[in-house]
Amino acid sequence: LSFGDQILDSAFGGGLLTGSINELFGPASAGKTQLALQLSLQVQMPFSMGGLDG
Asked: Start and end of every RecA family profile domain (predicted)?
């Protein structure tokens, strides 16, 4: 699953693996909720836009 951001995708080898559990952690105001919201939208996007067509 693509993050929708080239830098994050590069850092994670192309995105997150599907079918696995991933944990976001870090200090307050680091952007954890924003990233989780972005990923929840990304999975609903069509394959042509890097989503999972869900």
From this structure: 1-54
